[in-house]
């Protein structure tokens, strides 16, 4: 069954976009082991990168293999991407470092040509590592001015030390006959957000369109 669009009360959806804009709202929540919120931030995502529009172009045009578009993947390699049922797939499972929301320690300001996080934090429980949970999705919702859906991932810190997340990105699939992987968003968080040992960072990307 296809998910239905949920209609919510006016003003219920947090909205940082202007009328006519398509973009994303980034929400960061840090909780301790008891579920108490120790940090909570909501900000506008400002950094869709070129692969987002390129992959959208591929799907809008239903490009066949002979007319594939060359796109740079997360390894910096050119890939010939065509229409495919998995384009934009970001439903990464536990520990998946190819699809879904990613976090890193890089602080360089985003550019339109970014194709990977500057310094991605590895998955695991060792020093400097975070445990990547599975990606989940909130159903589409709307109020009188805004439509959205939410992409969520948890990052648990069992490394034995505090970790500061400075950059966040979204990695998705592009299809060239097999799955290749591309970054479509990269945001840098001013001052970073600390994830103390034993606590969990939840990242929500809320893709929105505003009338």
Number of helical segments with 4 or more residues: 1
User: Based on DSSP secondary structure assignment, what is the total number of beta strands?
Assistant: 12
Q: What composes the largest sheet?
A: 7 strands, mixed
Q: Structural class from helices and strands?
A: mainly beta
Low-confidence stretches: none
If you compute it from the alpha carbons, what radius of gyration comes out, rounded to the nearest whole angstrom?
17 Å
Helix content: under 10%
What's the average pLDDT?
93
Overall body shape: globular
What fraction strand? over 45%
Tell me the span between the first and last alpha carbons: 28 Å
Order of helices and strands: EEEHEEEEEEEEE
């Amino acid at each position: 069954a296809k998910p239905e669009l949920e209609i919510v009360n006016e003003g219920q959806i947090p909205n940082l976009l202007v009328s006519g804009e398509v973009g994303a709202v980034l929400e960061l929540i840090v909780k301790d082991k008891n579920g108490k919120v120790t940090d909570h931030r909501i900000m506008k995502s400002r950094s869709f990168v070129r692969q987002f529009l390129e992959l959208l172009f591929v799907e809008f045009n239903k490009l066949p293999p002979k007319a594939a578009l060359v796109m740079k993947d997360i390894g910096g390699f050119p890939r010939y991407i065509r229409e495919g049922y998995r384009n934009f797939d970001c439903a990464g499972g536990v520990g998946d470092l190819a699809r879904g929301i990613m976090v890193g320690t890089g602080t360089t300001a985003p550019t339109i040509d970014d194709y990977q996080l500057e310094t991605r934090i590895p998955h695991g429980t060792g020093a400097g590592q975070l445990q990547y949970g599975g990606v989940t999705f909130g159903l589409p919702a709307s109020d009188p001015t805004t439509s959205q859906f939410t992409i969520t991932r948890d990052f648990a810190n069992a490394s034995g030390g505090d970790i500061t997340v400075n950059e966040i990105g979204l990695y998705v699939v592009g299809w060239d006959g097999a799955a290749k992987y591309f970054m479509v968003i990269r945001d840098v968080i001013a001052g970073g957000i600390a994830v103390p040992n034993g606590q969990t960072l939840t990242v929500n990307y809320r893709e929105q369109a505003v009338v």
